[in-house]
């Protein structure tokens, strides 16, 4: 369009063009504001940590309490926490023969809000505690920096306000390693029962989990697909076999079987399932001496059998997170009673197992170790005392 044609546009056309431009401007402005709101919401989503505004007196109480709470998650006992620079309370039994040892680390600078010296066992990862404390202090606009002693591995933390560019130390935490303190933790083996009740696709995913546990091999007649999936997964598995009377239709061993017959069955199982971690012989009717004879017969082959008393049976009607919380509470309670090696028989759904793998770190950071049935028996062989404690708490 040239200038001459443009000058020929009448008044009505000019109004239409002007109106169109105004509408276009409004539309563009609308989309601009909408994009701005979206960007603002994205920023809010990433800023998930809200800084709490507290007075100095409140912070002096809250921050030390928060640190104590964090270290307790790692199985650190209250009696292992004391004021830095103070002498530990002497053992009354050794008070006469031994002198009170001097503090392992030098006292912190004076004028601090707080100063702690925390004795920790050799197996506690101080770096992880440092990380958790730093994350916890973030909501108060505080942070900490650590320095590790290259010889002892002891860790010193300096707590400061993030707004202070000089990072002036306001609190001090000293982690001192010692082989004289031990956490209350245990070796745990989980055996998953009734995995055939889990849909095949979810069972395949479950069996690929990096977590250490064992499973009960499903019955070949009823759940051949599930058994095939378990065997193909190379997961540590066990066989469960029942002893019963003739009326017990599902029992593998019955009182009316001739000796030659049940011995032949033992031999057949050992050859067919030579990769199994073991056989758990269930004897709910306490049938003797057949139960003992069968255990002895298995001992003649490469597949060892065990009484079901080796198991801690965990039965709960809860589901998902509630079920896992109940399981963890049971494990902790038995550990506090002296249990140091426990084999749990549990039934999990796919959702239960997802909740378990999501929260298992809570026990691991306290010092609990998890094993397959094969591995936990090897550990028991090296430390027979743990098996005795298992029988006490089971």
List keywords for this structure.
alpha/beta; 394 residues; disordered C terminus; 41% helix; flat; five-stranded mixed β-sheet; 13 helices; Beta Polymerase, domain 2; nine-stranded parallel β-sheet; TIM Barrel; disordered N terminus
Explain how this protein is built:
The chain is α/β, with parallel strands linked by helices and 394 residues long. The chain folds into 2 domains: 56-86 and 105-177, Beta Polymerase, domain 2 (2-Layer Sandwich); 184-394, TIM Barrel, CATH 3.20.20. The protein is 41% helix and 17% strand. It is built from 13 helices and 14 strands. The protein has helices spanning 3-7, 11-46, 56-72, 126-137, 200-207, 224-233, 259-272, 290-298, 320-336, 350-359, 361-364, 373-382, 385-393, and strands at 81-83, 114-120, 142-148, 155-161, 171-177, 187-192, 214-216, 237-244, 253-254, 279-282, 305-307, 312-313, 341-346, 369-371. The strands form 2 sheets. Strands 6, 7, 8, 9, 10, 11, 12, 13 and 14 form a 9-stranded parallel β-sheet that branches. The protein has a 5-stranded mixed β-sheet with strand order 1-2-5-4-3, covered by helices on one side. It is flat.
Please give the share of residues in helix.
40-55%
CATH topology name of the largest domain, in short, is TIM Barrel
Which stretches are poorly predicted, pLDDT < 50 over at least 5 residues? 1-7, 36-49, 93-100, 390-394
- Cα gyration radius (Å): 33 Å
Task: Write down the secondary-structure element order.
Answer: HHHEEHEEEEHEHEEHEHEEHEHHEHH
Q: What is the CATH architecture annotation of the largest domain?
A: Alpha-Beta Barrel
The CATH class of the largest domain? Alpha Beta
Mean pLDDT: 85
**Span between termini:** 95 Å
Query: How many strand elements?
Result: 14
List the domain count as a whole number.
2
Give me the secondary-structure category. Answer: alpha/beta
Principal-axis shape: flat
Q: Hey, roughly how much beta strand do the residues contain? A: 15-25%
Count of helical segments? 13
What is the assigned CATH homologous superfamily of the largest domain?
Glycoside hydrolase/deacetylase
Give the biggest beta sheet: 9 strands, parallel
